[in-house]
């Protein structure tokens, strides 16, 4: 992709802010899809999808649409927003009819994406409400456990996406400006992301007490892997013969000037 004329105007702070906005936008998307995936199996085959001013259902549809609508829409939005960002980067600064900076243009685009995701979440909530009005019996405890798992999974994904963008805490003897510290941040980010995705899948696939045990095992595995990575990074940093992590260059994706 050709570099934009104002690409160099993006500071590290600008890049970090744009990444945070993107994380917020897709976190809403992940949460909506995960909740819909949990609720859909309990829905009747036909549910009300629209209510009149008096609260009576006037339109009906398939219960599976509660999952398909956010899924298909989010896939479409992912492609649209990606192409829009490419368009803004490619053509920003061409002509003399706009004084808006590249950072401002991209920020407005991402804020618009957050607003669209929020509207989609409200539409999905309305569909879920229509389905719940027809469910005569379901396990409140199971619903609470599953939704709690979704919350934990989404928070873990957010932490994983945000980890390379923040300084965070560092282990003793490992300077923050060292390459080992930077690689450790990206490795920890990958672990948090994978754990979050795993918890989202477990919330959908498992039931009852098995979800809780699965969360405990996943959390212990996450803590163990992060601890081992920390010890490895410190050991390598104290080894004068260590040439550095083999995947360091591949791990510096987040340091490229790309919001």
UniProtKB/TrEMBL annotation:
Keywords, in A-Z order: Membrane, Transmembrane, Transmembrane helix
All copies of domain DUF1648, residue ranges: 30-73
Ranges annotated as spanning the membrane: 20-43, 63-88, 108-131, 143-166, 186-204, 210-231
Signal sequence, renumbered to the chain: none
Pfam families noted in UniProt: DUF1648
InterPro entries: DUF1648
Domain of life of the source: Bacteria
Protein name per its UniProtKB record: DUF1648 domain-containing protein
The species this protein was found in: Bifidobacterium coryneforme
């Amino acid at each position: 992709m050709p570099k934009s004329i104002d690409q160099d105007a993006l500071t590290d702070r600008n890049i970090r802010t744009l990444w945070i906005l993107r994380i917020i936008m897709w976190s809403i998307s992940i949460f909506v899809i995960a909740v819909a995936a949990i609720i859909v199996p309990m829905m009747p085959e036909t549910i009300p999808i629209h209510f009149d001013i008096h609260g009576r259902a006037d339109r009906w549809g398939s219960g599976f649409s509660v999952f398909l609508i956010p899924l298909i829409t989010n896939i479409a939005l992912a492609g649209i927003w990606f192409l829009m960002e490419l368009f803004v980067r490619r053509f920003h600064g061409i002509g003399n009819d706009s004084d808006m900076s590249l950072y401002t243009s991209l920020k407005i685009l991402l804020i618009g994406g957050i607003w669209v995701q929020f509207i989609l979440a409200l539409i999905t909530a309305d569909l879920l409400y229509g389905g719940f009005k027809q469910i005569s019996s379901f396990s409140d405890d199971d619903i609470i456990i599953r939704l709690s798992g979704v919350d934990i999974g989404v928070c873990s994904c957010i932490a994983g996406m945000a980890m390379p963008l923040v300084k965070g805490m560092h282990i003793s003897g490992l300077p923050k400006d060292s390459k080992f510290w930077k690689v450790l941040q990206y490795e920890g980010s990958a672990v948090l992301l994978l754990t979050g995705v795993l918890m989202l899948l477990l919330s959908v696939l498992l039931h009852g007490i098995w979800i809780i045990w699965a969360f405990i095992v996943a959390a212990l595995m996450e803590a163990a892997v992060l601890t081992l990575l920390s010890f490895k990074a410190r050991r390598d940093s104290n080894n004068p013969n260590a040439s550095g992590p083999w995947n360091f260059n591949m791990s510096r994706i987040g340091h490229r000037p790309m919001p």
